[in-house]
Amino acid sequence: MLGASLLNQTHELLILQEHNRSTPDTDFILGEQECVSQMKKCINMEEFKQFHGRFIKLGMMLSPFCVSNLVASCAISQWGSMDYACSIFRQIVDPCSFDYNVMIRGYAKDMESEAAIFTYLEMLEFGVGPENFTFPPLLKACSQLSAAREGMQIHGQVLKLGFMEDLFVQNSLINLYGKCGLISHSCRIFEQMDTKTVASWSSLIAAYAYVSLWNDCLRIFRDMTRETEIRAEESTLVSVLSACNHLGALDYGREIHGYIARNLSESNVAVRTSLIDMYINCGSLKKAMLLFQEMENKNQKSYSVVISGLAAHGQWEEALRVFSEMENEGLKPDDITYVGVLSSCSNGGLVERGMEYFEKMEVEHGVKPTIQHYGCIVELLGRAGLLQAALDFIQSMPVERNDVVWRSLLSSCKDHRNVEIGEIAAKNLFKLNFNNAGDHLVLCSMYAQAERWQDVAKSRLEMVRLGLRQEPGFSFVVVKRKVHRFMSNDRSHPRSRAIYEMLHQMEWQLRFEGYSADTSQVLFDVDEQEKKQRLRAHSQKLAIAFSLMETDEGTPIRIARNVRMCRDCHNYTKLISSIYQREITVRDRNTYHCFRQGTCSCSH
After folding, report:
1. pTM
2. What three-state secondary structure class fits 414?
3. Which of 59, 272, 338, 484 has the most CB atoms less than 10 A away?
C-alpha cells in the first residue's frame, strides 16, 4: 500500500503542470520529460549511472524536476543504492517534501531505520512541511526499531497536522503499535477507522501474531471473513497459519486451507510452505508430505521446513533422504537446514554421520557453524550416552558457550543417570545467571533418581533463595473447535468428575497390560504409593481421558504441552494408544511423539 501511494506521488510529479518548479522553455521541458521517462526504464545501477552522466552532460542537474526523479528512482527501486541516492540528494539546493519523502521511504525499504528518522528530523529543521505521504514510511522505520516513544511522538504530529483520517497512516500506526507490543493501541485505531481495507485487517492480525496472541489472530480472521467480502492477503494467511501452528489447531488449519483453495487460484511458495509447516506442527505429517510432493516450485525454506519437521517427528531416515533430494535439485542448504539435518542424526543415533554433516556444512556449503549447530552436536553425543565426549566438545568450542549447550548436556546426564558430569554441566549453567527454575528441577530430578535426597533438598532451598518458581506444566487439546487446557491434578474443568471416572477406567485397563508407574522422576522422598498418586493425574493423562470421552472411536488425539513429557507419561500413552486403538500425537518442548499401536515415533 505504501508502494502504491508513493508511485501515485511519483506519477503526479511526472505531470509537468502539477510540478511546482516548472521551467519556461517548453522544448527543454519536453526533453526533460523524455529523458526522465527513459531513465525510469533502468533495471540496474550501471544503467542508472549512465543516465545520471547524461543528465550532467545535458545540464539537466539544474532542473529540480530531473534531480527529484533521479533521487526517487535510485532510492525506491529494488536495484537502487541509498548511498548513491543520498549523494544526489545532497546536491539539491532547496529540497521539497517529495525529495525528503522518497529518501525516508528508501531508508525504510533498506531497513536503515535510524537514517529514515534522522532525515525526517532534518526535514523539520529546514522548515519543510511533512505531508500524508511522509508518515507511512516513517512509521514503518519506527516499527522496525520497535521505537514506541518516537512512534507516539510522530502519532502526535499526525494528529496535529490533521492526517489521522488518512487510511495509509492509520494502517501504519496499527502496524507500529503491534510491533512495539502495544496491542491495545492497535485495536483502538482499528476500531476508530471508518473504512477498513485488507491492509487494515492484515495489520491487526499481524499485530496479534507479533505478541503471540494466537487465539485472537484466529478470532480477527474469522471476523474479517464473516463480516466483510475482503479476501485475505497471502501475508495474512501466513500469520493465521502460524497461529494454528502454535495452537496445534488442526481443524482451524484445515478450514484455512479450504479458504486458500477457494480464494487463491495459485498460492505462492510462502503460503504453501506455511501450510506444510502447519500440518507438521499439528501432527498431520502425511498431509504435510503430500502437499510438499505436490509443490512444483520448492525453495530452500520449503525443504528446510520439511527436514526439520521430519526430524522433530522422529522420521530421521526420511529427513536425510529429503536433504539428499534438496542437494540433487541444486538448492544450497543454509544454517536452518543443517539444524534439521543434525537433529535427524541425533534422533537416529547416527553419531558418525552427524559429525560428517557437521564438517560438510562449512567445507562444501560455506555454512559457518553457529551455537545452534554446536548445540545439536552436544545433543547428538549426549543422546548416544557419550557424555564425556560431549563435555570435551563443549570445552573445545571456538564460540562462547551459552545456556543451551550446558542445558542439553545436563538433560542427557539426567537421562543416562551420570551425576558427576551432570553436576559439571549444572555448575557452568548456573554461572550464566539465567535463573531458570527448569534447570534446577532437572538437577533435582537427577539427584532424586540417585536417591540423594539431601542434595534434592539443597537444590530446592537454592531455588527458594533465588526466588525461582516452577513453571506449572499444562497440556491442551482442541476438541470440537474449542481449546481445553489441563494442569496436573486439575479439577477446574466443567466435566472434571467424568474425566476422573474415565481416568479410573483407563487405570483398570492398564493393569491388564502390566503397566507400572515409573516413579523415578518424582522429586519427593515419600513412599511409593504417594509417588504413584502424584503421577496419577498428570495434565497429559487428563487431556487423553477427556479426548477419549469427547471424540468418536478411531479419531486421532492431538495434545500440546508446555514442558517436556515425563517418562511415566510416555509409557502410559504408548499403552493407551494400543488399548483404545487411537493415534495420539503429543507435542512437547523438544519433539513430537506419535503413539500408535503401543509404539512411539521417537523409538523410546
Report:
1. 0.78
2. helix
3. 338
